[in-house]
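@channel sequence for tomorrow's demo:
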Amino acid sequence: MNDLQIEKKAIRTNVLNARDAMPPDQRARESMKMCEAIITSTPYLRAKSVLAYASFGSEFDTSFLLGHALTDKKILIMPRVDKEMQQLQLHRVHHMDELVAGQWGIREPQIDAEIVMPNMIDFILVPGVAFDRAGFRIGYGKGFYDKLLLAVNPASTRLSAAFDGQIIDAVPNEVHDQRVDIIITPTQKILISHDRKNH
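structure tokens (generated this afternoon):
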């Protein structure tokens, strides 16, 4: 583990500890605020296809957003962890009952669900532990989303939602780290302008 990875790990631990300590009622209230901000945003409203994930642990609760995407007749796409390939496989979801507990207990599509290619997605909800105002993020350390974001349509919108305590001054980054375009918190919308070619 190099110095940058050690620094990322320390940030991840500190931010997760703070997020885990949030009162459940505050987490629920702020999650709904963020979901409402997402579903009224222009990139979401324009999108035909939406890639989003089922939240777990102390993450912001995505369940309202997932249900709303289906009600809105969006093409809802969700990731499944492919253990052999060590990457995310994307599948279309027609109903939340189709999801099963996958690796780490996170709800995901079944292996035989319809596969969707990354370049077919208009809007991507990107998870993360910590973010900075330049759009850099620290994930859970597996690199799944960095790999995925390299393969998606460059014109797609990459949005993350995070509690205010997840926004830090600067995320240590490497050349392979992928940035997001918008970060929504319960109190603000952070718009990031950057060149896709320059991570």
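heads up for whoever presents: Helices lie at 3-20, 24-39, 42-46, 63-71, 144-151.
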